[in-house]
Input
Amino acid sequence: MTTQNRNPDFDSLLPAARLTRRSFVVTALGAGFALAAQPVMAQSVIKTDATGLTAGEIKVGELVAYRAQPAGGNNLPTILVVSEIFGVHEYIADVCRRLAKLGYLAIAPELFARYGDPRKLTNVQDILSSIISKVADKDVMADLDACATWAKSNGGDPARLGITGFCWGGRFAWLYSAHNPAVKAGVAWYGRIDGEVNDRTTRWPLDVAGEIKGAVLGLYGGKDQGIPLDDVESMKAALAKAGGKSQIHIYADAGHAFHTDYRPTYRKESAEDGWQRLQAWFKQHGV
Output
């Protein structure tokens, strides 16, 4: 993780507001990659087409989201996809299409929609101060709940619900798995494990290790400058003490954001191995 992106997991999220038009600043998704994440490393970007899929922007109430699923599919295993601080831009949409090609209904909500559009800001620090610092955990949980309900009525199988998240979203892969007992499995990509508690950011993965009913796989980089290995080891110990099915895998030579194929942090070998582990983990745990 670069110095510029040192704090992508300064999480928060606010009270469970009703999904009304009045609540949202962002009501539509844009195209392409977030400005603050550029320049894009074009040579490594994975591009997944939508052939055979139903894919594109949807509304969950007034919450905008990206959805991809096999065309005509029904009773599909469902994966909630939680973005990094850059919101639902092309990388997250492509992850949804990759999952849809595997037979999933994948849905990525724009969880920053009440506060602004991180895709349009050119500076990571501006995103952190003007958007991320205002988001509250309660809102994220409510929005993810709404997406799970939407999926149930639009081709998803509620008995096969999973979640995956990246960086800022990796934290919520842990937290939502503790929040919603219907989540069978989750994969948390380098989500921050511990930090400051306030009225918006109320708990951390380390706090909920004993409350996860399903199984979460944490994927972390041994050279991540923003997530101390001591925290990762503490999480491992807490999971072991809880006696559940969750596990952590560390890529010793990878840093932060090693799955982001559009950024210099991308590490192809670790990313591809992590993706294989994700698929095996979901299958193993009934998603």
The first helix runs from residue 90 to 101. The chain has one domain: 21-284. The beta strands are 53-60, 63-70, 76-82, 105-109, 156-166, 183-189, 215-221, 247-251. The radius of gyration is 17 Å.
